[in-house]
């Protein structure tokens, strides 16, 4: 018996709220354990889960309008089922309203919820179907942060920094489904030929900002179905992330370090650009991410250029004798620049997290500083748009390390130079073509030899 996609969506959202773990990780586990094999069912699960996360505050306002029971007192599972049901009724035009109600209630029954509770959900959803016309007046009465589906603290800080209209724009962008951005391995394929091949296959593909980037509009299939995936011709990577790797250029022959490799997106992009007789060491402490890093390196055919190391940066720094020509510190951060791709982030962050990440980021830079050769380049980057994790971290680091100074990026494409400010910082707010990023290029002073 094929699992009910709505049941799986409810379970995923339940676990996401309960654990605070990334929703994509929870989704992979639950979908795999359920044996969900039909592509259309997988797509429905994703549409329900991501739809709820992108519309959560509005959905809750609708639920509260039709319920005498306060949301704060509802069981997590009940609330998630209601969100899934309301999402279908309000936003998924291709789903008949009767199916939205019946299948959601059926999913809740399959999760062994008591009859009174499934009756409550059934009654609320049917009331919404009957009185859907009152939503127009409800929408007009909602505060901005609620209608834009962001936490108050997050929206308020963006209004304070950017003004109301820019803050609203950021929130609206965060609620969109992102287009697909690829980073090509130009050692294995040509961009013009790759785009031509995609176009002939019916894709809407075009060049992006960087020499390696390709944008694909309105793609709903799996990534592995795109020609060239198994040959290592491309990986999925936002154009903003690709610009961060270019901050290190030009790249003379030497030894390089990716201090926070993660799944290897920037690692692989950097490795593909390295000149001959160069080595890139990629450090990653998390076991699951390290396994995926190795798999991605192998698929992208750059194994000869990268030495992956399973270690914390602090441990690696104590053990290595290397001085590196250049180092990339793509630091762990709040991720508030990539909410569009990871909509659960907005609900799993608090203002206190910014201080916690800042402390961690400064520690990483301090561990990295002694490993950089005199005259070498350090690029510090985050996928955050918050000053606490960006400019303030850099300012503090430079104050504590007088032998380092800001440097101006040299090889940023013309189409992206407007993202570089007067200090040499790369600062990108989320828009339709890219996520939000910060990066800067720092040089270590060459000591005078007497």
Sum up the structure in keywords:
globular, N-utilizing Substance Protein B Homolog, Chain A, 4 domains, 450 residues, 17 helices, alpha/beta, four-stranded antiparallel beta sheet, eight-stranded mixed beta sheet, Alpha-Beta Plaits
Could you explain the architecture of this structure?
44% of the residues are buried. The chain starts with a helix and ends in a 6-residue tail after the last strand. The strands form 2 sheets. Strands 5, 6, 7, 8, 9, 10, 11 and 12 form an 8-stranded mixed β-sheet that branches. It has a 4-stranded antiparallel β-sheet with strand order 2-3-1-4, with helices on one face. 46% of the residues lie in helices and 14% in strands. It is an alpha/beta fold and 450 residues long. Strand 6, helix 14 (287-299) and strand 7 form a beta-alpha-beta unit. The protein has 4 domains: 5-142, NusB-like (N-utilizing Substance Protein B Homolog, Chain A); 144-175, no CATH class; 180-236, Alpha-Beta Plaits; 241-444, 3-Layer(aba) Sandwich (Rossmann fold). The protein has 17 helices and 12 strands.
User: So what's the oligomer here?
Assistant: single chain
CATH superfamily of the largest domain: Vaccinia Virus protein VP39
Helix/strand-derived class?
A: alpha/beta
> Shape from CA axes?
globular
Q: Into which percentage range does the β-strand content fall?
A: 5-15%
- Given as residue ranges, the uncertain stretches (5+ residues, pLDDT < 50) are none
Q: State the share of residues found in helices, binned by percent.
A: 40-55%
What profile does the largest beta sheet have?
Answer: 8 strands, mixed
What sequence of helices (H) and strands (E) makes up the elements?
Answer: HHHHHHHHHHEHEEEHEHEHEHEHEHEEE
Task: Tell me the count of domains.
Answer: 4
As a whole number of angstroms, the C-alpha radius of gyration is 24 Å
| DSSP strand count | 12
What is the averaged pLDDT score? 94
Termini distance?
79 Å
The top level CATH class name of the largest domain:
Alpha Beta
Number of helices: 17
In the CATH classification, which architecture of the largest domain applies?
3-Layer(aba) Sandwich
| CATH topology heading of the largest domain | Rossmann fold
